[in-house]
Amino acid sequence: MEINRRTVLRTATGAAALVAFGTAEGATGTAFAATSSSSSSSSTASAYSLEFDPTAWSYDATNDVYYQLGKVFVTNPAATDYENLSIYVPGAYLTATKNSDGTTYTAKANPKGTVGAYSGRTAPIVIPVNTPGYAAQKPATTYSYTSVSQYLEAGQIYVWPGLRGKDSSTSTRNDAAPWALTDLKAAIRFLRYNKSVLPGSTDDIVLFGMSGGGAQASVGGSSGDSPLYYPYLRSLGAAMEDAHGRPLSDAVAGVMAWCPITNLAEANLSYEWNMGQFASTDTRASTTWTSAYSADLAKAWPKYLNRLGLRDEHGKRLQLTESSDGTYLAGSYYDHLIKVITTSLNNFLSDNTFPYTITTQGGPPGSGQTGTSTTYATVEDYIAYLNTSSTWVTYDATTNTATVSSLEGFVNSQKNANKPVGAFDGYSRGQGENSVFAMALNDPSHFAPLTRDVIRANESKYATFSDWNTDYGSASYDSDFAQKDTVGKDMIWRGNAYNPLYFLAPTLGGYRRSTVARHWRIRTGIMQGDTANTTEINLQLALENYGVDSVDFATVWAMAHTEAERTGDPATNFISWVETIVK
Fold first, then answer.
1. Which end of the chain has a smaller Cβ tally under 10 Å, C or N?
2. Distances from the Cα of 375 to the Cαs of 302, 346, 358, 459, in angstroms?
3. How far from 168 is each of 111, 436, 440, CA to CA, in Å?
4. DSSP state of 517
């Protein structure tokens, strides 16, 4: 395995079977035994080669960039329109001569060439995971310096792979999970297979993405070298060994995740506990079966959380306990969550001066749409606004610090539930994430055993409501879970592969069975209604509990579902962070 000790956390790879992720007591799932990573790539004759062609470089003389587009990175591609990558390299990192055709170049790596803090030997490789909502990432088809300039000027090597997603399936091909991560891992393996002819450090590969992209970057960072992916990688003819028969790795050094919509196994439950329990309209209106469903999901989440065994930075066990008001709004985990919210607000007060104008997000990230803008003359005016409906924030003007006292007050003021009950695994399979785990084109599937368990335990109660439909019952979940994909794996296997906590939490089956990235930077807009606060918080805690000592985490006040940063520009901050972790 190629990654060195300073880059990733080594993990055991014993032969014990793994159990299913996120299932409640009594739930069943698929187990598997680890298989050796030393098996070779597809032996079937193929028109595609894993060899990178060093004689096919193009050159942008104006900006001193060498690049190649459209290199298929597996020998048995399922989708050549997606399974290809582009690579962009600062000119200093290659020594090249023009070929007889007058347009292409033959180049070899120049380890002594330098750009900024890096050389041709040490330059990190950054890989975007631009997959909002778990959509596909289309590969580059034409060269554009503008889209990669900021990274190249900082001395980084930029690799842009195509990744399949929930929206790229065809009538003859299913691109649902875990194919996007399989494509990403195959691309990483391709880079390592060709490290002798490519500049840069394949020990220092860093993923970055937002929303569904941040989620898939997080899965990639936590599932390095997981045997769960081997059947998928082998089916594509990915590089499993180098030219000398030594196992290759798909682990990465670092992950930058903005607002990662992840931990989907328990996301329905956490959403209702964190936000849904404070809402009473639409699917949470008292006359609907989904209002009872919401309450049951909220009650189920603390039981799941308490089994995770998360601990704070002092080693204190974080748990939820019953409360006189609300659903489990007490305990050390509740106190930790309030502390995170308080820290976010105080960072905001420290980072900004008043008068201050807050503009709400008016559309999805990248839409250019903005909502309403309100200017607050003083901090006191802003705190008064926060306390409009109830007093949940107190402010000390002497120290310019605030104290948050209530999750309910925060949610009602700043983080309303904007998704229906069953926010991720929808009871009618109508949520976007149901398509992430589709079995075929236009065939969304249930994927969350924890949600199924809640439905199963309370089905007779839900049946007393006039809007209940038997199609929403647990049998529909069981039917979906039993189906197998083209490599013979069921929904439990696929769900495990897409859950970072499966690899990080000691109570789940993938613990210590993967190679986890050693460096993480997580940013989230604390006001987003897209997922619970607990999503990113639990990812941070699980990483730190695992032993990752480089987790840069912040929730950003007054921001929603976006590339949230306390100050500065997201790309600039990412580039600067990479420089701090590549030594």
1. C
2. 38, 18, 6, 49
3. 39, 11, 11
4. E
Joined together, the tokens standing for residue 428 give: 């009618």
550-556 and 519-525 strand pairing: parallel
CA dihedral of 143, 144, 145, 148, whole degrees rounded to 10? -100
- What distance in Å separates the CA atoms of residue 451 and residue 33, rounded to the nearest whole number? 26
Positive or negative torsion for Cα 160, 183, 53, 575: positive
What is the model's pLDDT at position 367?
56
Quote the CA–CA distance of 465 and 289 in Å, as a whole number.
5
In the sheet with 254-258, reading across from the earlier edge strand, the strands are 58-60, 65-72, 84-90, 157-161, 125-128, 205-210, 254-258, 519-525, 550-556
Q: Give the DSSP letter of residue 429.
A: S
From its phi and psi, is residue 524 left (phi > 0), alpha (psi between -120 and 50) or beta? beta
Q: Which residues pair with 57 in a beta bridge?
A: 105
- CA separation, residue 368 to residues 122, 246, 331, 428 (Å): 37, 48, 41, 32
Task: Tell me how far apart the alpha carbons of residues 408 and 334 are, in angstroms, rounded to a whole number.
Answer: 11
The 10s digit of each residue's pLDDT in 111-160 is: 999 999 999 999 999 999 999 999 999 999 999 999 999 999 999 999 99
Helix, coil or strand: residue 54: coil
Q: What is the CA radius of gyration of the chain?
A: 24
Give the pLDDT band of residue 360 (cuts 50, 70, 90): confident
* Other CB atoms within 10 A of residue 446 CB: 23
Contact status, residue 9 vs residue 516, Cβ threshold 8 Å: yes
Integer Cα distance of 266 and 304 in angstroms? 8
Q: Where are the alpha helices (DSSP H) in 134-202?
A: 149-153, 179-193
Specify the DSSP element, H or E, that contains 188.
Answer: helix 179-193
The token pair that represents 243 in the structure block: 């030219």
Question: How many alpha carbons lie under 13 Å from residue 249 in its C-beta half-sphere?
Answer: 23
- For residue 301, give the nearest of 325, 280, 275, 282 by alpha carbon: 275
> Which ranges constitute the DSSP H helices of 77-178?
149-153
- Can you point out the beta strands (E) in 285-435? 356-361, 370-376, 393-396, 401-404
Helix (H) or strand (E) segment spanning residue 273: helix 267-274
Separation between Cα atoms, residue 246 and residue 248, nearest integer Å: 6
Q: How many CB atoms lie within 10 A of CB 396?
A: 9
pLDDT (mean) for 445-470: 98
User: Tens digits of per-residue pLDDT, 481-540?
Assistant: 999 999 999 999 999 999 999 999 999 999 999 999 999 999 999 999 999 999 999 999
CA distances to 64, 137, 296, 453 from 301, in Å: 54, 33, 9, 12
Give me the count of residues in the chain.
583
> Within 10 A of 55 (CB to CB), how many other CB atoms are there?
11
